[in-house]
Amino acid sequence: MNLIKVAKLIFEYTKYGEEGEVVGTSRAIDNVSFDIQKGSFVAVLGHNGSGKSTLAKHLNAILLPTEGTVWIGEDDTKNMDALWDIRQRAGMVFQNPDNQIIANVVEEDVAFGPENIGVPTRDIWTRVDESLKAVGMTAYRKKSPNKLSGGQKQRVAIAGVMAMKPDCIILDEPTAMLDPHGRQDVIRTIHELNRQEGITIILITHYMEEVIDADRVIVMDEGKIKMDGTPKEIFSQVEQLKKYRLDVPQVTELAYELKKEGIPLDDGILTIEELVNGLCQ
Ligand code: ADP
Ligand code: MG
Distance between CA atoms of 281 and 271, rounded to whole angstroms? Predict the structure, then answer.
């Protein structure tokens, strides 16, 4: 079943001159169509400026299409009456955790979203309990967010979105400002939410290692979808990825170079284990 449907989406930013007058438009999304299956884990890759954030902002109606249509479930994002429903169903997590945390106490921060949409108090605290547990932050519930590491703050931000009981969470480079340990924790957390809670995940990233375990990888360049497939299918095409200024995971790169030197290996090797098996055959 499709949770999200994007059809012939075009988005143009308006360009303004020095006096604030309109001097033209620039196209950030150029005729993009795709569906997202309920329960799937989809990674979106692309070089800076390829249109990933602009696309993400269409998935919870922060931006509305210049042309084309975006549906979340049955709702067209252009339908203003459905706005809060859409925002509740498709939650966003951004790059900088500091910009997403509002309250002075972790549990209050997580409660903020459901409070805002009028969830009854008793249910709010059940949701806060469940969400903090799901991201592994229960022990920090009474703490000040200021005292947390970047990765912990990002998990609190994810708990805040979870407390809204969304069908889908869209994360726009959520690990870009984190150290490797924080990155791992966040990525593990969103995989658990996907597997255990059945929440659909759209992960925008430029860390190749974060993409390996996704169900599906979409590659964007110049506002278009250039590749769309399983991690194995995508990372089999090393030359093409390089054309879009993307790297491949280190193991994939090594296997690719060995293969070029004449060692018989499969395309799209993603793990050390696969490489070792390939070499020992
Ligand atoms: P990505 O997230 O992949 O780096 P973006 O969606 O941020 O890409 O940007 C896509 C294109 O749109 C880029 O050319 C960028 O310069 C342009 N753009 C992004 N935000 C704005 C904005 N607020 N106003 C004008 N142009 C923008
Ligand atoms: Mg971006």
Answer: 16
